[in-house]
Input
Amino acid sequence: MIIIMHKSAGEADITHVEKILSNQGIHSERLIGEKQTVVGIIGASHGIDISAFTSLPGVQEVVRVNSPIKLASRGAHPEDTVITFSDGTRIGGDAPSVVIAGPCSVESEDQLRRTAELIRKNGVRFLRGGAFKPRTSPYSFQGLGFDGLELLKKVSEEFGLFIVTEVMEPAHAPRVAEFADIVQVGARNMQNFPLLRQLGNINKPVLLKRGPASTIEEWLLAAEYILSGGNDQVILCERGIRTFEPALRYTLDLSAVPTIKQLSHLPIIVDPSHATGKREVVSSMSRAALAAGSDGIIVEVHPDPLRALSDGAQALTFDMFEEMMSELVRIGDAIDRPVLVESFNRGKSEVRSPMSEVRKIV
Ligand code: PEP
Ligand code: MN
Output
């Protein structure tokens, strides 16, 4: 970290800054330039509160030289993190890209079973569905809670699917983790620090959605909470950020995918459903996400979107979902990274690509 002093800063201002640092046991070095002086901090600076220095007299700017991201950074861990599930299915690294699909909310057994049947028929292994729903209005459907988790369990067992579901309250984390194969942290909870700390203690992968108004650094620092708690299975999810553009629900920041790949070893997937809020554009943004190097996508699909209790406008119809799947397989072929599409009747270790030959996952 360096503290750049203002041109007009006097000797008293500079020694004041140095004194505060030395009182905290921090060693600093003064660099005297022609017009300005810079106070450089020697050694680790991640515990220093920058805001305490920016307002001191004579201070122009405080700049961090080292990134505050530690465990999530690619520097700390050059190899990609790969999350492996009970049957060997993997997310991240060079594993085939995955599709996670299902309704926004678990509404009924019939709704969930029909959706599960559809996605399984299309070779998808991960069923999403919210039982605890973070709704903007307290008057909107809030989810079926633990009854919804029981339905997810029943239906996922029937079809051999992994469950992706959201946890909202820190106290619920251990219980939700018993049902979920991937525990989702919703965008609005990205900086719910007590929740993140709880998830550092569980032994299940966490899907950490990006906050709609969060920078990539804030997002990685949120991941840092989970990693530093001892849970190294974090998957990031870009789900759109709020910009000035009102045409769609959010703006999908696809450039976050290669940026995260550079900065971090963690897998990243993309959620074009929440990012766009509009079923007509979900498929094209899913294709773009895979082309951008995403480790997978998560999409909403519903047997009757017009009657969905949440997020109906962005839910794919069954026909749209099937069409999207075949398009994704073609993108997978084009970029030489297959999409995990498991044939219902074949062994679990196969990746079926309707457009090309059957390939084995190594
Ligand atoms: C969801 O996945 O249904 C959801 C609420 O997503 P987000 O937290 O990204 O809005
Ligand atoms: Mn939703």
In short: DSSP finds eleven helices and 16 strands in the chain. Residues 318-335 form the longest helix (18 residues). The pocket of manganese (II) ion (ligand 2) is lined by residues 104, 274, 300, 310-311 (CB under 6 Å). The two ends are 45 Å apart (CA to CA).
